[in-house]
Request: fold
Amino acid sequence: MTAPIALSIPAHRFGTFTALSDIALDIAAGEYVVLLGPSGCGKTTLLSILGGFLSPSEGRVTVGGRDMTHVPPAKRPTTTMFQDYALFPHMSLRDNVGFGLRMAGMGRRERHARAERLLGMVGLEGAAAKRPHELSGGQRQRVALARALAVEPDVLLLDEPLGALDLKLRRAMQDELKAIQRRLGTTFVHVTHDQEEAMAIADRIVVMNAGRIEDQGPPDRVYRRPASLFAAGFMGEMNRIAGTGRQGLVETAFGSLPDRSPLEGPLTVCLRPEALRAGEGRWKLGAARIEDAAFFGTHYRVHLVPEAAPDTRLIAHLAPGARPEPGARINLAADPTDVTVFQEDAP
Reply:
């Protein structure tokens, strides 16, 4: 009940518009992969090709080593779970979960037993006789998940499945999705534009932009050491500082970075807000004035005007006990190991 995936799609077009380019993606059996990117980046198109709802203009799709490029959705070892859940309002939860099994010809007793087992797995034991209108949004999402898993797909495709939930419930369902995936070992491919969601659940994040894969890897690597300036900016807040590479040094308005770099010419120096600190550090950026501050529970998000570059605005995440006051002056520092440098211009 799990399978590896291989996608090799040189291009996919809608008329004269090229929606996907140079897609080469291998997914291991049992891996939880999240396709992440802004609206229009091609992630849902890629998921639709994997699910069989679209055939690629060029290229090949294999699941479990079998060519699925032109196989219709109903004959693929994949199931897709959509954002709107698409539950049948007139059916009980038991019958909703067992619908695919009924279409496959499974007997009533067997499919009811499997449906009730899956409802229990998603925390809805004892609710099999209820109708969808009796449930909360999060509970309906769990029923949709149980229905998708009932047919025991090799690959489960999830298209923005948590987008309609509020923040607290979305976080709870992220934990449940990952726990269920680990328990079953099914290959999950999940589409979202929510960076936090991607980092919470993925074994591997695939960052997409303009129909291409910009970066892919474990969440911590993609966040801490992004492969492109787009990935750096999309994976959360990022301070961007203009720099110049010259004779192995990276020079900025805040002085030279302590570590040497092989890059030459115009550079963009990237630094996460949590990497900026008030106090000591190997890279001293100098004094800055606090423009404003907002409390987020785990940290203060602070806008700063640095004295070395007064036309620049920096964002720092300071400790929750810092109590930064607008107008106050602090000395900024960072560890050079937290810096990423790109030979690209900031968009």
In short: The chain has two domains: 5-231, 237-342. The chain has a mean pLDDT of 90. DSSP finds nine helices and 20 strands in the chain. The longest helix spans residues 167-184.
